[in-house]
Amino acid sequence: MTAPHRHALYTVAQVRALDRRAIDVLGIPGYELMRRAAAAAFASLRRHWPQAQRIAVYCGPGNNGGDGYLLALLAHEAGLAADVLALAEAAGEGDAARARTACEQAGVPVRRWDGTSPLLEADVHVDALYGTGLNRPPQPAAAALIERLNSGGKPILALDVPSGLNADTGHCPGVAIRASLTVSFIAAKRGLHTGQASAHTGRVELATLGLPESLWQEAPDAYLLEAAVLPPRPRDAHKGRNGHVLAIGGDHGTAGAIRLCGEAALRGGAGLVSVATQAEQLVALNAARPELMAHAVDGPQALEPLLERATVLAVGPGLGRGAWGHALWLTALDSALALVLDADGLNLLAAEPRRFDPARQVVITPHPGEAARLLGCSVDDVERDRFAAVRGLAQRFGTLAVLKGAGSLIADADGRLDVCPWGNPGMASGGMGDLLTGLVAALLAQGCSARDAARLGVGLHARAGDLAARDGERGLLASDLLAPLRSLLNGLDA
Ligand SMILES: NC(=O)C1=CN([C@@H]2O[C@H](COP(=O)(O)OP(=O)(O)OC[C@H]3O[C@@H](n4cnc5c(N)ncnc54)[C@H](O)[C@@H]3O)[C@@H](O)[C@H]2O)[C@H](O)CC1
Ligand SMILES: [K+]
Known about the structure:
With 494 residues, this protein is of the alpha/beta class. It has helices spanning 12-24, 30-48, 63-77, 95-105, 140-150, 255-267, 282-288, 300-309, 323-334, 344-351, 368-375, 379-384, 386-397, 432-445, 450-468, 482-489, and strands spanning 8-9, 54-59, 81-86, 110-112, 124-128, 156-159, 181-185, 203-207, 222-224, 244-248, 272-277, 293-296, 312-315, 338-341, 362-364, 400-403, 409-411, 417-419.
């Protein structure tokens, strides 16, 4: 019996089951839930826009619209000017129809949106068009209204889900509301925290509608990551206790990626970091970061002695897909060491797929393009359902999978999902992935399991990106993250 763990994320089907249990088992009528939802949303509206005197509510044909009618009624009863534009004719019966009648009988003007009339004059617009019931792209009239609201220059409060956003996947099949605030009811939906969601939800608040803890019986399988750091180092720590990362990459002309990976492994706290790379990179690497032990490796034989000393492998940054990179990649895959695969290490895996021994600690960190190649689908397919994609990766390769992008996702082979709530568009730049690879390798080197290294690494990396973006998201460089990363790792939140 767990209340909605404040980081638990639910599917629409799971929330519907909670709704049903509230109605059937706890005997709370659906209309009472609707009234509580409207009250919670209205209270949020007053908190966020205390000066608002006029609100306009846009109601769809279902229960999301029902929430909107009851919110308009509450605003009217509180002395605000409230108007309603309805997308559809009054529904025959049901809670939404009852809500609309209560609204009209109280004297709140309810007019039909004819597809062209101007928006209502208001300080705040309330989006009550679609919630968890969205099952196709908004149709022309609704789409036109959504686009007008988005360009209306006034804040939008979205009820439960910004209309047009799929509450399960975070994908927008068509146009979608861009809200300043979303008040979500009963339980947080997965789709509010990944993919396109962050461009549409604004701030997300959860209203549990005063339901008793006994409602949340089944434990959900998706959670928002929580801020965490590594436990403090024992005083007698020595470099041998913090593992030895061997970063493999840096084909002709690409020293930067493997260097960033190695630096991140050092900053991430690995005891020792070696780099196996092409001879031409040595000077640049040693000059840039002498603490990295760079080795010229021309093939698998030269790699062997380095593998014997390493405890974790990070394979892929700047590896290339030529004979040199492929030979080193094969050697790394045939070792039993913990492994982080990224960039060309993943492209080579897409070309020569294999399942890893579940006992081996392996983390793969694709961006959507690499994920598409690994899954044999399009990038659109990946982004259309990121949760399905990341789970597919973990199951297909038998590894811990990270699917990067807005709201990075983490899946392990038994289906548990974690969602990263941090990060910003400034991080969509070269080298950010190389940092993550090195950081995850460093955490593995310090004894984390693949799952903990991925969760901690993704969270710290994104939080460091948010700290570094305090000086602006434009021009954010991967190396800007190294300083805040070190602070976060040591629990010294900058
Ligand atoms: N169930 C409860 O106890 C509570 C529900 N709450 C609110 O209810 C909505 C979910 O309501 P539902 O009627 O299932 O669906 P929607 O209102 O989201 O959608 C309306 C209706 O519209 C049709 N539809 C879907 N997509 C489209 C489209 N693109 N174009 C046209 N029509 C579309 C579809 O038939 C839907 O049924 C939930 O989000 C909450 O806001 C209460 O708040 C809490 C209790
Ligand atoms: K909505």
